[in-house]
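yo

u said u wanted the structure for the complex thing, so here. seqs first:
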Amino acid sequence: MQSHMEEVLQHLLPASDIAPQRLHQAMRYAVLGGGKRVRPLLAFAAGEVSGAQQSRVEVVAAGVEMIHVYSLVHDDMPCMDDDSLRRGKPTCHVEYDEPTALLVGDSLQSLAFQLLAEFRLADDPLEQLEMVRFLAAASGSRGMAGGQAIDLDAVGKPLTLTELEFMHIHKTGALIRASVMLGARCGDRLDATSLERLDHFAKRIGLAFQVVDDILDAESSTATLGKTAGKDAEQNKPTYVSLMDVEKARAFAQELRFDAMESLDVFGDKARRLRELADFIVFRQF
Ligand code: GRG
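structre next:
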């Protein structure tokens, strides 16, 4: 599935010989050839729950990955996290330059919404409009970008666990939730209970993703992660490891996994791939 996603992204990104070539090359550099593709995989797995057509989920999967990559490119810039390594290669502004990286992020965000408007994702156009709205809300100031603002504001400040959770629900959780909910909405209409169960799964696994990310940042090497390890402690950032210690953070990730899995019970075997992904998110080493 990951290699199929690579082909989909190759195809949906502007070709590198189309003007402006340098911007298109940089967009392709940032998106292609790296990353775990967790969000696209979640969209495909959620689409299995509702019997979604693969061609529809592909567009949603590409859209959420483009928003995600835009956030990584901007996050790595000197005005934010100032990092030089991402997905095992130089960050976009290091490989190209800062203005180009800024435009890469801007253009990927626009392209994501262009794709969601351009291709048929649902039989009912109003349902499709709601999907576009959902992704916009998840990405903006009351979702991912807002979470980033809270994060930037929190550096060096003591946060409570509740405040930390609030930040992550926005910064990482919102887009993970959008990946699951939009993937599912590409298929047959699900009843309110099923949508609520899926949403609960997405929220729990989104938080688990972040708890594990904090553990890996504290315990893994830069080579394994493909991005600079140990930055949280170096920058005095509040994390689940700094607030709880590693063992408690591990136990919390397991609790979240258990809760997430339980919410999939109603879907039986249709949620098999979502369960596999939940395991991947919690047990991953990179
Ligand atoms: C700049 C608007 C704006 C938002 C930035 C998501 C984010 C907000 C910044 C990314 C920096 C970061 C370390 C976030 C916490 C966890 C996270 C989202 C890690 C990266 O996601 P992965 O592990 O990355 O899915 P890959 O490279 O595998 O896609």
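Residues 192-219 form the longest helix (28 residues). The longest strand covers residues 85-86.
cya
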